[in-house]
Amino acid sequence: MSLETLFSLKGKTALVVGASRGIGLAIAKEIAAAGAHTILAARSADKLAEEVTALKAAGHSAEARTVDMTSDESIAAFAAEFRSSTDILINVAGTNVRRRMQDYTAEEYTRILDTNLHGIFKVCQQIGGGMVERGKGGKIIHIGSLMSLLGLPYLAPYAISKAGIAGLTRVQAAEWGRHGIQVNCIAPGFILTDLNKDMWQPKHMYDWLQGSQANPRIGTPADLAGLAVFLASAGSDYVTGQVIAVDGGYTTTANWPFQPAY
Questions:
Q1: What CATH number is attached to the domain comprising 33?
Q2: 256 inside domain
Q3: Residue 158 catalytic?
Q4: Is residue 262 one of the residues assigned to a domain?
Q5: In this structure, what are the phi and psi dihedrals at residue 13, rounded to the nearest 5 degrees?
Q6: Annotated catalytic residue: which of 154, 158, 238, 250?
Q7: Which pLDDT tens digit goes with each residue over 86-107?
Q8: Domain range for residue 77?
């Protein structure tokens, strides 16, 4: 099998949930460029329409759909349309609020968990269940976080949701592997997006990052897209149940001031 065939997504239908901006949009663009008919889904109908128009102008196949991950009715209607036709499901939808644990409101806690975990579980029940029924295999890719692997302060509900995504990944992989469905999770490191750009304004944040990981720069959404295409392709058919960090080495390396004398 040629490299072009191995990583081509031609003839596949891909759902990217949470595709209106940032990581989700970067992944959707590359999935479409790899040949998949790509459905961009999110709450922002106007933004999705703009992005689909741009993808079509570039010669790609794409559609837009709205879905609210906190609404059972919205999820059910969305999933019913694509249950029998989806080859690739990519779950990017997420939200976050950074506070001291004792300061979260009940509404914030519920909204974060519903968007980041509960809604994704419900989408997977329908779309993943459809993959099982079709009997043609499939790919499911979740976007986790560093919080899928470790803990940082002021992220308690978010960390619960992303640790849950890592656990869901492993269980889905174990349960659906016999049906030819591979399930993996990408765990982004420090990626600059609209959701966190204010946090990275102070210079001391960049100074800290440069001393904390092997690759000293902050990541971009585009840094995740190549791995998403790989995990969606036939090239990853023997990769499943993995939580793969794309983090500049943050979870596996550390820097120190020591320099050898010679």
A1: 3.40.50.720
A2: no
A3: yes
A4: no
A5: -110, 125
A6: 158
A7: 999 999 999 999 999 999 999 9
A8: 3-246
